[in-house]
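Notebook entry, cofactor series.
This is the third protein in the set we're modelling with a bound small molecule. For this one the ligand is pyridoxal-5'-phosphate. I'm keeping the input format identical across the series so the outputs can be compared line by line later. Sequence and SMILES below, as received.
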Amino acid sequence: MNELKDKMYSELGISKEVLDFCTEIEEKLQDRFKEFDEKAEYNQLKVIKAMQEARVSDVHFSASSGYGYNDLGRDTLEEVYAKVFNTEAALVRPQITCGTHALALALASNLRPGDELLSVSGKPYDTLEEVIGIRPSVGSLKEFGVTYSQVDLLPDGSFDKEGIKKAINSKTKLIAIQRSKGYLPRRTLSPYEIGDVIKFIKEINPELIVMVDNCYGEFVEYDEPSDFGADMTVGSLIKNPGGGLAPIGGYIVGTKECIEQASYRLTAPGLGREVGATLGVTQSFFQGLFLAPTVVSGALKGAVFAANIYEKLGFKVVPDGSEPRYDIIQAIEFGRPEGVIEFCKGIQAAAPVDSFVTPEPWAMPGYDSDVIMAAGAFIQGSSIELSADGPIKPPYAVYFQGGLTWYHAKLGIINSLQKLVDAGIVKL
Ligand SMILES: *Cc1c(COP(=O)(O)O)cnc(C)c1O
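Returned structure with ligand:
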């Protein structure tokens, strides 16, 4: 009991009943938290080692402008990413506007008309449906004559190896794997089972390019998919690896050949990686990467805390309160729109920024139903910061992630429960 702390929670609108309920759950999670701290320690060392080997220096933090020729900071940052992810090369740029863009870039640059893209982890993330052309869209891969096929995960959430073997044909060029669940209530794939399926795919045809959508997965485990032979591993810098400091950006790490293809698509044939001014963001990219392992561990603590609270209250939570974690996302199924809405209101009201606004469900570009999003973030849409979102469609699940500090994640989750209690949706 810490009276000062409890009084502060009370001043923030948390009732004693809600606080006591949550505190009791937190006390039982100390072993889990220790496991996250150990992974963070390892990943922190991994990042520092990469920065030392690349001889990062403050000269690398200066801004380039115009064409951005000879931007030493940018090139060193890419060297650091390649070391951290254990790959030959990396493309890490503010010109990559978001995760969807990074994935679209990885795909469009490595596929040619007549090639087939095969997803082996079922339906890809919503925004990729338009990139691929699963939903008709201007400029999709489909418009450029790239066909698409898909193998769903098995009912237990594992890869359907037999199905994958059957689906690979002479046109198949690139295999896509999505690590995180996205907006589907399936389990997240571990880097280890992704590694196992990459080996299986390469045995069928070593020429196939394997791309992993690593969004939300970075630094959750000791290893990344790139440690197990993924030709491209892709993600967003306003998620895990940006550490909350990167104001924009995406990354692709992988083989020299794949990264080169991506660079010529990002800028122009003949230009590639040689251009692309960094306009002063490089320091935040380095510093964000440096902080990312501990930021991710705080987010993981928040996710497990939320899982245990809502599991105890009888809701379906994915992952459940005790299973291993391979991304920072926590899904909670409320079974009714009001649950999703009240949860999001609680997250919003606990934010350091925009705590006074009320989130509402809305149509969003790239999504096929209304979506509610709660984010009181320093960086617009940053989902390594405490945020929650949910499409307003069955099973009315909210997807919750982030928190730059564990204490903020904790307040947000406690406040979400307070809102649900106040609205009469939950009884303690
Ligand atoms: C967030 C996410 C994306 C897209 O990233 P944006 O930065 O929102 O465009 C793609 N795939 C997965 C699994 C994601 O979680």
